[in-house]
Amino acid sequence: MQHIQIEHWVNGRREESASKESFTSINPSNKQALAIFPMATAADVDKAVAAARVAYVGWSQTPVCERVKILERFADGIEKNAERLGLLESQDVGKLLGECVNHDIKRASHNIRFFAQQMLTHTDEVYFSDEAFLNQPLKTMSVARRCPVGVAALIVPWNSPLMLATWKIGPCLATGNTCIIKPSPWASLTILELGPIAKEAGLPDGVLNVLTGGAECGSALVSHKGVDRVSFTGSVTTGRAVNIANSQSRMAPISLELGGKSPAVVFADCDFERAVTGVARGIFRSQGQSCVAGSRLIVEKSIEKRFLEALVAKVKAMKIGSAQDPTSEIGPLVTEQHFKHVEGMVERAKKEGCHLLCGGKEAAGAGYFYEPTIFAGVPTTSEVWREEVFGPVLATQSFSTLAEATALANDSCYGLSASIWTTNYANAHTLAHNIESGLAWINSHFVRDLRAPFGGVKESGIGQEGGRYSLEFYTQVKMTCHTH
Length: 484
Ligand code: NAD
Fold this sequence. Notes:
- The protein has 15 helices and 21 strands.
- The protein has 484 residues and is of the alpha/beta class.
- It has a 7-stranded mixed beta sheet with strand order 15-16-17-14-13-18-19, sandwiched between helices. The protein has a 6-stranded mixed beta sheet with strand order 10-9-8-11-12-20, with helices on both faces.
- The longest helix is centred in the N-terminal third of the chain and has 25 residues, at 97-121.
- Nicotinamide-adenine-dinucleotide binds next to helix 7 and helix 8.
């Protein structure tokens, strides 16, 4: 296959990089080279921020209805290109093709449309009062208006590139801001495609800019004085560095969506089949490369043996293969580097004496395939219990009382999500309330209403995105007081 060679997208056109460094993306299903693109430097960041600042003047003044029309056409454009973008994303990151086309790309389009439409129903606040000024009584009308803020730096990880990118781009542009988006070098291709689609929809040049690159580009972006908002999704380690760089330069309001080690708590009174299938999907969807993966199973002792047997049987029946083969249920890990990271964590868990129920090794095939792996009765001091693997690895423990289940679920520095499997709604809601996480699902996983908040607590992040939470993040409130 011929490599795709692609440049940054700045100011409405492909822009050559100041950088001599490039990155070759590999299709993880077959280890063949797919594309080459540049690793941006601070000079590229300066150029993109300058373009975004100029574009901000016009875009922030564009009437809301006009902005909404353009963004809806942008959403239509993504939808029209769903097959092509889905294939590209599947080849780039190894996500199952069907999942890319039918879920991620559709959500990408919906993210843009959803936030655009939110602007049509957005209302500012008005307060009427009787006050006094210079001893004269006055009628006052105080208007609290949400205004755009300027230029946003949007940094995303590799696991769901287009879905996560549009989750930020949608509210950022809908509220009248401009942005520079920086994908992960492991997943830049589909985000680079957004530029021409947005241009065709009528988005003015410079409103949406894409720079490909790694830490050098990312850190130049988050410490740039021309940037007014930083929205970052990625690991806790990088999130910490981003927070420091941002606060040392000019303290832009920041949103951090970070990693997780989410518990799936299964009670004896659960709908058994639904829970087995749900827990398997919760951890093994996208090969465990999901921030909300349910990577710690906490199951009630009385059903532990039966539940684990059923889970292992389900997992062993899953077909591992190329992400572009529609019959595959488990695709490859994203890169060789990530494969080695997952393999290393599994080997250390084995050495620690964790009880391996299934998997634990490379799977056959031409790509970076790894068998879905389950360790039972994992000590809570073990690395595989405490640290995010971000791969197809489940660590299990058991409980006898609700208090024990809660303590095990909260035994983590992370607090992104949780799933609870029971038919007892009193227990479900008590646990959901007491679990230290930003979100908790009862008898489901991954389900999202875009109006609802999404974000982690503890080391899983700062702030919430979604619905009005995103619109608030990308705006600043201005009070204007009218008197008569
Ligand atoms: P990462 O932290 O390595 O990289 C994330 C992004 O930051 C990439 O674009 C990377 O190039 C960039 N980056 C690297 N160094 C930087 C620096 N010094 N300054 C600024 N940017 C820098 O994460 P990853 O491996 O790409 O993604 C996996 C992680 O993301 C996991 O921990 C996962 O849980 C998390 N994640 C969280 C969510 C969420 O919504 N909470 C969603 C998806 C993934």
